[in-house]
Amino acid sequence: MPPQDKYRIALLSAYALALHAFESLIPMPIPWLRVGLANIITITTFILFGFRSAMMVTLIRVIIASLFSGSFLGPGFILSMGGGVSSILAMGFVLYLVPGLFGPVGLSLIGALSHNLSQLFLAYLLFIQKIEPVLLITPFLVLIGTITGMVNGLAADLLIKGLKNSQERIQNIP
Amino acid sequence: MSLRQTINSTTPADRILLVFLLLASLGGIVFIKDILPSSGGVSIEVQGKTTHRYLLDQDRTVRVESPYGHLTVEIRGRKARVIQASCLNKLCEHQGWITRGVIICLPARISVSVGRPEKSGDKEIDATTG
Asked: Which residue in A48, A1, A20, A10 sits closest to A160, CA to CA?
């Protein structure tokens, strides 16, 4: 990996971690509910720099955030890791399969859906082991995930367009 | 680049996916309880002891005997009712269909309760009278 890629991944991971930390300051009605602001960085990375960079940024963000909060290898860590990795995999799969069909918002929605479903599946497999409560909460979580996914996707879209604009402006300076 | 422009630049597939997910999850919230097999059931007690247990989603008619009389209980369409009682005032018959709660026939000392099956530990008697 060339050094500028490493620097870029480090910088993007730092942004993601900062958003993650900032988000934990926002009070939420349900403790495990998160908007997933760090995913704005994930989607931006995915679209601008590709699958591998996005996966790296997600892994770094999840591991370091869990080290900061002391939940490394705990149940919350397993769920974050599973959700993060599966959402990148799903977005990568969809972009590989039908490139150009979905924009940042659609990819964000796909990522959010796969994030939710994989977390529910992991929670069922590891912690709850009863299908009924998991199925009961699934549509509720998917609804919240769709709303936050849309918000994050729009934010990422804005960020991507802003970045491209500024890049063009810099390049156009004689 | 404004938010409005960004919203306008979403692809049709993005919007279809968004609408589909919203509808599917909202529909799921509304209908999930009907789709799931309910753990609710009907239990019939004679003189404080549970003698019959049935699932609400299986239709049937049962006759329950006690030393003081008898009842005929009908379970149909996730509801239960008493269709025939041996007592005089027929209070339990008049109560009609219930989806949760209890029908009690005091003369025959039979109760028909509908709802989630309780764990045996949850049930405690506050007081008894001779």
From this structure: A48
